[in-house]
Amino acid sequence: MFQLIELRNNVGIKPSLFKVEQTKAIKEVLNTKLANKVLYKHGLGIALFDILEIGDSFSFPGDAGTYTSVHFRYVMFKPFEDEVIVGRVRRSCPEGVWVTMGFFEDIFLPKEYLQSPCKFDKEENCWVWEYQDGIETHNLYMDEKEEIRFRVVKVEFNDVARSNAQRPNEPGPSSAEPPETLPMKIIGTISEPGLGLLSWWKEDNVE
């Protein structure tokens, strides 16, 4: 789920940080720049792990700050394919279910990857697994905020900066729906035994 990657960057230190010890200032700048940001193909930045090397500092004419070449390792969130993860149901729509992990919310379970047979309840605005035990059918609702176990099918990345530059005049997406182009999206499935709401698989959960 979490990975370490090595990066090199020319870290800019503003004059307001000159009074701070250099290593501490570099850590602050790197976390401000990378934490909770998606790095294309690498994942979501979590936190600086360590600094491997600090190079020489330099400055540019007319710029009061300094720049320092830094070699470091950063903790990234990027699940691998087939990894099983537990999150919470964020919301449902006719196309599927959105899941959150608290620090990352762009996890989608398409309707074809839900337990079968299932249906979308428009009144409750949630998906229902029509579980059949051989005797009768039980409607198991996927309510919001419920814990859910899913398997990662794939992780998709989009170069949002490039996409926005190519479509500068297009209207933004409705606030009711996640944007079509997300910098990072996890596609998951629960169409296997043991996957889905944790409450489904507890003993005596179906009366």
List keywords for this structure.
207 residues; mainly beta; five-stranded mixed beta barrel; 2 helices; elongated
Share in β-strands: over 45%
User: What is the number of helical segments per DSSP (H or I, 4+ residues)?
Assistant: 2
Structural class call reads mainly beta
Describe the biggest sheet? 5 strands, mixed, barrel
Uncertain regions spanning at least 5 consecutive residues: 171-176
Percent range of helical residues:
under 10%
Q: What is the radius of gyration? A: 22 Å
In total, the number of strands is 13
- Overall pLDDT, averaged? 89
In whole angstroms, how far apart are the ends? 36 Å
Q: SSE order, as H and E? A: EHEEEEEEEEEEHEE
Q: How is the largest sheet built, in terms of strand order?
A: 5-6-7-12-11
Given the C-alpha coordinates, what overall shape results?
elongated
Write up what this structure looks like.
This protein is mainly β and 207 residues long. Helix content is 10%, strand content 46%. It is built from two helices and 13 strands; from the N terminus they run βαββββββββββαββ. The protein has helices at 22-34, 160-166, and strands at 2-13, 38-39, 43-58, 66-77, 84-93, 96-100, 107-110, 118-121, 126-132, 137-141, 147-157, 184-189, 196-197. The protein has a five-stranded mixed barrel. The radius of gyration is 22 Å and the shape is elongated. The two termini are 36 Å apart.
